Amino acid sequence: MNTIKKAYEYLNRLTPLKIDCGKFCNAACCKGDENTGMILLPNEEFICDFGNIKSDTDRNKIIICNGECDREKRPYSCRIFPLFPYTTQTKNGVKIEIKIDPRAANVCPLNDIKMMDKNFIRAVRRSAKILATDKEYLRFLTETTSLLKEIEQLKSLLNL
Ligand code: SF4
Ligand code: SF4
Question: CA 155, CA 123: separation in Å to the nearest integer?
């Protein structure tokens, strides 16, 4: 739990743009429905103790909110949106690459990482480095990375 809170600290004040990007899209990423949720890190539901917590098809839990939350308690997935730290284990250690999450493409107008605040990108990387020191969070990051790579391949095959 402390590891999650340390990861949060990097992202308490930073957002994808230096200005409020929610003004461009009417905060589209907070406008899900009862079937759309944000994936939680292992045990993150004990911090994000609001909304409706469900299990997804894997081992992960998801949170379905009503579009409003206490900023201090917003989940890691919301803090790093629309990015994800692609994490792989190599013989030299853990490799982390920050990329746009392909699941965000239908929601978020920020479709080029170059337009984002470098401090935000750096904070996502630092937060992931902290998470990767714990084997459960490392599992989450590497498994999600595999899933995102599959989504990218599928999109490419379908020319999406
Ligand atoms: S959808 Fe993208 S641009 Fe809109 S508020 Fe969320 S992160 Fe910002
Ligand atoms: S938990 Fe908070 S930040 Fe995340 S989608 Fe819901 S309202 Fe938005």
Answer: 28
